[in-house]
Amino acid sequence: MTNDANKNARAQFEHVSLAFDTPRGKLQIVDDVNYSISDGDFIAVIGPSGCGKTTMMNMLAGFQKPTGGRVLFDNAPVQGPGPERGVIFQEYGVFPWLTVRQNIAFGLTLHANRVAPGEREAICDHYLSLMGLSDFANSFPKHLSGGMRQRLAIARAYAVKPQFLLMDEPFGALDAQTRANMQNLLLQVLAAEGKTVMLITHSVEEAIYLASRIVVVTARPARIKEIIEVPFPYPRDESIHERPEFGQLRSYIRELVMNEYRAQQAQSSFSE
Amino acid sequence: MKADGVKRILLGAIPWLGAIALWYVVRWSGIVNPSLIPAPHAVAMKFVELLLHEGLLVDVWASTQRVTLGVLLGIAAAVPVGFLLGWYRPARTFADPMINFFRALPPIALIPLVIVYFGVDEMAKLVVLFYAAFFSGVIVMYEGVSQITPLYIRVAQTLGASELEIFRKVIIPLTVPHILTALRVALGVAWATLVASELIAAQRGLGALIQNASTYFLLDVIYVGIICIGFVALVMDMILRAISKRLLVWQERAVA
After folding, report:
1. pLDDT one-digit tens code per residue, A209-246
2. Inter-chain contact A83–B152, Cβ cutoff 8 Å?
3. Which domains does chain A have, with CATH numbers?
4. Cis status, amide bond into B90, omega within 30 of 0
5. Residues 27-66, chain A: which have Cβ within 8 Å of B?
6. Model pTM greater than 0.95?
């Protein structure tokens, strides 16, 4: 993964704004955001909670339309959701009425990416073992722990082979240990399958550990505060947490985010 | 396993035995004039007599048939209507007051009109039961459907599902539990409405049995009729619950 700015952009935010009309006036959520995500990039978007990070992701996923500017994917404006942009939701969204195997196979049974039953089973087996879910293949999600549900959601998204992954605080609800495991698993899978990722997070460590570039977003309305290149090459392992550059970068980004967090607090106490 | 089953049957029997004991106590205590309360054993004997000589089973069958048909037709109509109301919020704002208006009307109050428009045949009874089942079912359906989280639909969209695939593979499975609940609620309401529907000049049926017995003040027959209604309703509910359990193994339950 390099950060060559001249490479073909997969996703582009061009002067993107989003505002709602509320009874108390116009509410600006996203304001004039510009950046592009190139093939093989791993972008982490970080900012205070409620600042509009998820809204940015929703616009690229196709759930929301910008009220100003354009969101492009492969040089065409995003019209709606599609299987080439896999989304991993904060709330997992595993289908409770399907078994683990049926959840993974779900996308492969759809007209948009149907494969022969034999191949479907092979893909399921591959992700079941990769995610450590083989023993639970025929269980319903109610029998799974939070970490397993998250792995299932990831397996289901991967099974349709999206080249582009959108992840909305995917590990936010997990305990520290499971979270670290999931981050390492994600790095392994990316090393093997080479995907482009946009990750929404509020964890500075997670952003530095995983991403090639970090987009720091301001308090609402979301604007780009700064885009930071992460200097560590892939493959990465947990030892980079110990590197002095990691600590410096973490302090620097944390300071940026904390300033925005304070601004957000001031804003909300002002509006109340 | 076997000891467990025996224990469950015993536990289930205790409240029934208690109720029968209470019945005897009330009768013998003299709080109520004993001639107004037939003894449980007298009711049991009456039950056997009706069963053997008066064709009680014909009444049970007539009522069960009416209730089942009324509920099936009522729910068949309530499912699509409840679904539309739950799914399209504007439709709900538009239809909600009217549905609640009709739901609040006791079916028994409609009987004179039903007789005018549908006569006194089987059709008339069916209309009353249909009415009761439809309005109780429609509420359950639309409350349930309106609570379906959009998350699952978004997930399906990002995996490439078309509108039709979302409907078939996401919305239908999520609607099944609500259809089953609607059926159970409607069955309860329909049994409650049965006597009213059989007031319309029914020859046979448990409601008719009770109605005729009350004319001649045959309290024991009334008791037999009431107990039969409760029992048949209980059995039907148990069957539905068993079906739900099979269809909804995936559901998380607060208590196992």
Report:
1. 999 999 999 888 889 999 999 999 988 888 999 999 99
2. no
3. 1-84+162-262 (3.40.50.300), 95-161 (no CATH)
4. no
5. 61-63
6. no
